[in-house]
Amino acid sequence: MSGTVRMTRKVTFSSGHRYWINDLDEIQNRELFGRWASRYNHGHNYVLDVTVEGLVDASTGMVVNIKRVDDALKAHILSQFDQKSINDEIPAFASQSSSLENLIQYIAEVLSHPGVLPTGANLTNLRLEEMPRLFAELDLSKTSDMITLTRTYEFAASHRLHSPALSDAENIELFGKCNNKAGHGHNYLLEVSVTGTPDPRTGMLADIGEVDRVVNELVVDRYDHKNLNEDIPEFDNRTTTSEVVSIEIFNRLKDHLPAKLQRIRLHETARNIFEVSAP
Ligand SMILES: [Zn+2]
Ligand SMILES: [Zn+2]
Of 108, 188, 213, 222, which one has the greatest count of Cβ atoms within 10 A? Predict the structure, then answer.
């Protein structure tokens, strides 16, 4: 793999869309999309990350001229999406749902056509953010579970790093300020990523409302404004490092979500991030 580099170009576009398929009637649309159904558009400021991989050219020192990648994105993606109504102006979405999962697959298809991206730049990953707390990712190196949907949550909790297996002096030596008897706190950010095959009719791999309900019930509402060491039984006699908390959150969620849990990421602070993935 020597000489292979991945690079990511980020672009943004604003589009209107709706959970309503033009080719279906009102009853069918309401049955399919439930509370999301509307014959009128809403809109998003989408953020698209395009990752390409290739060998570094010995003469230019580049995988590919990133300007050429940018030109391709302008010509093939932004021209279709930016300031447009997806359902009305992109023919592929007249008869299929403009879900985030379908949008990211459509963008992958467009960018995979021969000649769209510059030679030498192989598309490997896409990330499409619909809202700051909801994004999809597509990993083209995978043959199953290629698409993940990630939702971000927040909870505030206090804790004290203290290992029952160590003496008081050893705890102070190991954890320093974090061993403070009265504890300290964080605004934890929790990313929950689910994967699966999107339902061909709704284009969705999971009902986000149901993901929210489960994560809020099992984790966020349980830990928010609590002391992890004192209030939460699953941390009795355990050290509440973010490693331990992350594994606990992963295990609490894994059998209860409406789709397969692929990964959780716990941001203890903006600079300390912990990740647990499904095997
Ligand atoms: Zn939307
Ligand atoms: Zn801490």
Answer: 188
